[in-house]
């Protein structure tokens, strides 16, 4: 299993085994990841990800950031907190992490997930005496003693929505651990218990936007000041928007920081990013993607995917060698849109005939579970043979039950269902980019800090729909950066909301109807990612992969190979099938699919081609609790 956890081949790796527990882990190189840590009484602790600080469960000590004085490694810091507060230490941790605690004296093992479940953990119980978990879902259903099958209805969710909701997965018998939870295995009795140490509550505070923005700016500056180390070199993924720009505005000039932007050419987005970097007097690097970028990612990325999103969303990873050589930590603005914008909520639309349509800056209230399901439901891909449509599948998995139960995760109300559906747990989000960054290098996004998440849960709907706290933060921290027009809207961040709203739509109309397309190639765009729709029509990598995977599709009873070919051909002829084709390609390239369908990693492909070998993924952990015969005589 441990072999499935490595992305670059340069990771530190380790394994611990005794008569009850086996833990294997893989992590980015560096002393920060030395594992495990040990308490005075012999308890062992492993940690994957980042822990930025701690707040005492009783609140007496307030919040305290983790520093070099606290512990040399994240695992040591967590070990000291476990010594001080026992199992309740989890409630005080601030970060994006998975922590494993093996309390030898108590004969218990604990697996702790962070508040939002940003680092998913998956479990399977192959027999009554064994509990197995991994941060890599694909390593579980192919274990020799696990009898797992594909769940076609949950696969339908993945193929259509890009992710399976809640704690469900596409494999029978494999489930995700709940976010913000402590899963405890009693090594004597074999019982497994789960305790939730935190639950999100959307409780907006009725206050003026200016007051909220002041509170946000104050916390945001604190988060950056605490986290950034003057002895390290940082890289920032800089877009032409406002999320990463706010980070750049808040970083102290003395911090060694360089910026990166990836694109196929020096398009509008790249030009704005470069202008922002120069305004901040920071080094700017344009990482240029070529035409074969997606073909290469298809070979390398799916090995580590946990059925979130599509392989093409790992669009920065092939520049990983350069980034790891140049910086110690990579920073992104991921999470800002999810936590502080309106995108999760439907808005009324105004139709203007040939001029197009636009959303009004207000939220439509969702009054029932059924209404939410109807908004989410889409037709299933033609190539998937499933006895139920997506509406029926969602109706069985999102039900009113002491609130709303969404695939095993409970929310208090329909409003919270709509609010949290996209990020709690974080595996609900159909985007692989965050997970790919974690696998590529040491990565941090300040917007996932507990203190900022708490503010997101207080932001009133009217401020979400008609104001922008991230823009306001940039204006407050660096007016020069705020004056650079946003790449998407064409409007400086300093403008008032009514002005931004009107100019945004005017510029969008002008770009669509009056401005000539400047893209050098059809698959290039003015955005930071490839135009995948046109790339599929001008590059034959998908056709070759579908031909290569023909034996695999024939071995999967729920995939119609001829229908998949028709979907591809229809796309070439002008239909829009990019999403379902990229999801299918991701699925077919996953090693677990090959192993489960054909019992091999590559035998079927060798009959038709000799593709490049896959590379592995992120710094992760996996563990097994059970009898010694299970942990030592059942290698994967």
Structural class category: alpha+beta
Compute the number of helices. Answer: 25
CA gyration radius, whole angstroms: 24 Å
Query: What helical percentage do the residues reach?
Result: 25-40%
Terminal CA distance reads 6 Å
Q: How many DSSP-defined strands?
A: 23
Low-confidence stretches: 602-619, 626-636
Q: How would you classify the quaternary structure?
A: single chain
Q: Biggest β-sheet, characterized?
A: 7 strands, antiparallel
Q: Averaging pLDDT over every residue, what do you get? A: 90
* Global morphology: globular
Percentage of residues in strands: 15-25%
Question: What does this molecule look like?
Answer:
- With 636 residues, the protein is an alpha+beta fold.
- The protein is 34% helix and 18% strand.
- It contains 25 helices and 23 strands.
- Strands 3, 4, 5, 6, 7, 11 and 12 form a seven-stranded antiparallel beta sheet that branches. Strands 1-2-23-9-8-10 form a six-stranded antiparallel beta sheet.
- Helix 3 crosses helix 15 and helix 4 runs parallel beside helix 15.
- It is globular and about 70 Å long.
- It starts with 11 loop residues before the first strand and ends with a helix.
- The C terminus is likely disordered.
Concise account of the structure shown:
Residues 598-636 are annotated as: Disordered. The chain is α+β, with helices and mostly antiparallel strands and 636 residues long.
State the main characteristics.
single chain; 636 residues; alpha+beta; 7-stranded antiparallel beta sheet; 6-stranded antiparallel beta sheet; 25 helices; 34% helix; 18% strand; disordered C terminus
């Amino acid at each position: 299993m441990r072999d499935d956890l490595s992305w670059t081949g340069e990771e530190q790796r380790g394994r611990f085994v005794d008569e009850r527990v086996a833990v294997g882990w893989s992590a980015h190189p560096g002393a920060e990841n030395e594992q495990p840590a040990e308490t005075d009484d012999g308890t062992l602790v492993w940690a994957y990800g980042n822990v930025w600080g701690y707040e005492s469960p009783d609140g007496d000590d307030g919040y305290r950031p983790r520093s070099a004085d606290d512990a040399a490694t994240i695992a040591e810091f967590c070990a000291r907190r476990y010594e001080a507060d026992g199992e309740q230490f989890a409630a005080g941790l601030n970060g994006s992490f998975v922590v494993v605690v093996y309390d030898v004296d108590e004969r218990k093992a604990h697996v702790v997930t962070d508040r939002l479940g940003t680092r998913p953990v998956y479990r399977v119980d192959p027999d009554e005496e064994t509990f197995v978990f991994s941060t890599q879902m694909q390593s579980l259903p192919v274990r020799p003693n696990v009898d797992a099958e594909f769940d076609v209805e949950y696969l339908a969710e993945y193929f259509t929505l890009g992710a399976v909701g809640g704690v469900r997965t596409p494999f029978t018998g494999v489930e995700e651990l709940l976010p913000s939870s402590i899963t405890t295995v009693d090594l004597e009795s074999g019982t497994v218990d789960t305790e939730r140490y935190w639950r999100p509550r959307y409780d907006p505070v009725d206050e003026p936007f200016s007051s909220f923005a002041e509170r946000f700016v104050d916390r945001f500056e604190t988060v950056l000041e605490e986290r950034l180390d003057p002895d390290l070199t940082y890289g920032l993924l800089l877009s032409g928007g406002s999320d990463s720009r706010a980070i750049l505005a808040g970083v102290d000039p003395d911090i060694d920081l360089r910026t990166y932007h990836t694109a196929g050419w020096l398009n509008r987005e790249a030009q704005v990013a470069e202008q922002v970097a120069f305004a901040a007097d920071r080094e700017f690097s344009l990482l240029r993607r070529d035409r074969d970028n997606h073909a290469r990612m298809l070979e390398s990325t799916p090995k580590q995917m946990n059925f979130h999103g599509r392989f093409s969303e790992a669009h920065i990873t092939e520049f990983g060698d350069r980034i790891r050589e140049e910086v110690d930590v990579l920073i992104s603005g991921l999470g800002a849109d999810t936590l502080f914008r309106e995108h999760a909520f439907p808005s009324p639309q105004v139709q203007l005939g040939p001029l197009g349509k636009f959303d009004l800056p207000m939220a439509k209230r969702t009054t029932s579970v059924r209404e939410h399901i109807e908004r989410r439901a889409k037709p299933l891909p033609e190539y998937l043979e499933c006895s139920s449509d997506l509406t029926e599948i969602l109706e069985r998995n999102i039900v009113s039950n002491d609130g709303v139960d969404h695939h095993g995760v409970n929310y208090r109300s329909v409003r919270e269902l709509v609010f949290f559906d996209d990020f709690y747990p974080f595996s609900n989000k159909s985007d692989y980019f965050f997970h790919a960054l974690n696998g590529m290098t040491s990565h941090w996004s300040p917007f996932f800090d507990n203190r900022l998440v708490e503010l997101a849960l207080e932001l009133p709907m009217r401020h979400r729909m008609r104001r922008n706290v991230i823009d306001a933060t940039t204006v407050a921290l660096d007016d020069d950066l705020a004056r650079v027009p946003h790449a998407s809207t064409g409007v400086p961040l300093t403008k008032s909301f009514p002005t931004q709203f009107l100019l945004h739509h005017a510029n969008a109309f002008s770009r669509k109807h009056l401005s000539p397309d400047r893209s050098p190639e059809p698959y290039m765009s003015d955005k930071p990612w490839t135009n995948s729709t046109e790339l599929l029509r001008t590059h034959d990598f998908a056709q070759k992969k579908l031909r290569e995977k023909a034996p695999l599709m024939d071995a999967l009873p729920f995939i119609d190979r001829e229908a998949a070919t028709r979907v591809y051909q229809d796309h070439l002829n002008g239909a829009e099938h990019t999403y379902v084709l990229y999801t299918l390609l991701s699925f077919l390239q996953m090693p677990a699919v090959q192993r489960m369908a054909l019992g091999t990693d590559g035998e079927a492909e060798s009959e038709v081609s000799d593709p490049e070998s896959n590379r592995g993924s992120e710094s992760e952990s996996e563990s097994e609790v059970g009898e010694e015969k299970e942990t030592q005589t059942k290698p994967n």
